[in-house]
Recover the amino acids of this structure.
């Protein structure tokens, strides 16, 4: 099964002006980052963390704020982080400076998951982590394929990809494109959807007899992300591609990976997958 059999080619190339500035959003998030959120990020990694390796090598493909690179390093991993967005790279570097200023086992670079030669230079890793990244590249299936050779034989590939909901996904693709179309589009979409999301969160918390303000003191999710950061990431995240769970499972099965764990959603969020690469003798040697 090839990439082209899964999805039609997206608008190529993506106009740089239509790309969402994730890095700028993450730099705002740095002001909210604290030890509690770092611990939440570590807890999410521990759900799949290999217990038989004391110092696993960890590739954070699309590091964003760098929070999960930091969490991995605190768990003892030797870390390489990269991102396409120079603001995200700067954000990750600033985070390392704040929390681990004398760190030698954490390397940060700028690069693209669509750049095969760049990925080949990085080598192979025990864990390749790309969470909520590949569906924003403009060539999701190519990015998924490119990461394969960065996983050591027997290593883990951890990905989160937007769930395909048909017309709902088409609607959100349009919303995100409008947001990224310019100043008016950004303010219009923000003015409409941020209040709607906040109101929905408020009502949902009341229905579940939860304090509706508690989420703003911690995070909207268990991964340490702030509520507003998550909302802006969602409404502005363009390019935007989606996949059905069986497509992802079949794709990686055909590339020599076994499914270890999955968490699926019926909503607009991400399906989460942990795959293990089957043992072989063809992978390149890691630098780390």
């Amino acid at each position: 099964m090839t990439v082209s059999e899964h999805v039609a080619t997206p608008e190529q190339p993506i106009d740089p002006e239509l790309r969402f500035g994730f890095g700028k959003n993450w730099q705002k998030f740095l002001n909210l980052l604290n030890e509690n959120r770092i611990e939440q990020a570590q807890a999410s990694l521990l759900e799949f963390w290999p217990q038989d390796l004391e110092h696993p090598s960890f590739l954070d493909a699309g590091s964003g704020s760098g929070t999960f690179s930091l969490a991995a390093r605190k768990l003892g991993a030797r870390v390489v982080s990269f991102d396409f967005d120079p603001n995200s790279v700067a954000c990750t570097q600033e985070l390392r400076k704040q929390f681990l200023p004398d760190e030698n086992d954490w390397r940060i670079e700028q690069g693209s998951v669509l750049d095969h030669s760049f990925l080949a230079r990085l080598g192979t890793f025990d864990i390749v982590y790309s969470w909520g990244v590949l569906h924003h590249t403009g060539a999701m299936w190519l990015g998924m394929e490119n990461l394969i050779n960065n996983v050591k034989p027997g290593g883990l590939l951890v990905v989160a990809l937007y769930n395909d909901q048909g017309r709902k996904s088409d609607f959100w693709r349009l919303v995100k494109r409008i947001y990224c179309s310019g100043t008016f589009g950004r303010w219009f979409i923000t003015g409409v959807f941020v209040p709607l999301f906040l109101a929905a969160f408020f009502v949902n918390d009341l229905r579940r007899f939860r304090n509706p303000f508690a989420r703003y003191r911690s995070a909207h999710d268990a991964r340490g992300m702030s509520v507003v950061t998550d909302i802006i990431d969602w409404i502005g995240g363009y390019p935007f591609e989606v996949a059905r769970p069986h497509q992802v499972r079949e794709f990686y099965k055909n590339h020599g990976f076994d499914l270890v764990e999955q968490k699926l959603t019926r909503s607009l969020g991400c399906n989460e997958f942990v795959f293990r690469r089957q043992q072989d003798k063809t992978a390149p040697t890691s630098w780390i």
Strands lie at 57-61, 78-83, 106-110, 125-131, 151-162, 257-263, 270-277.
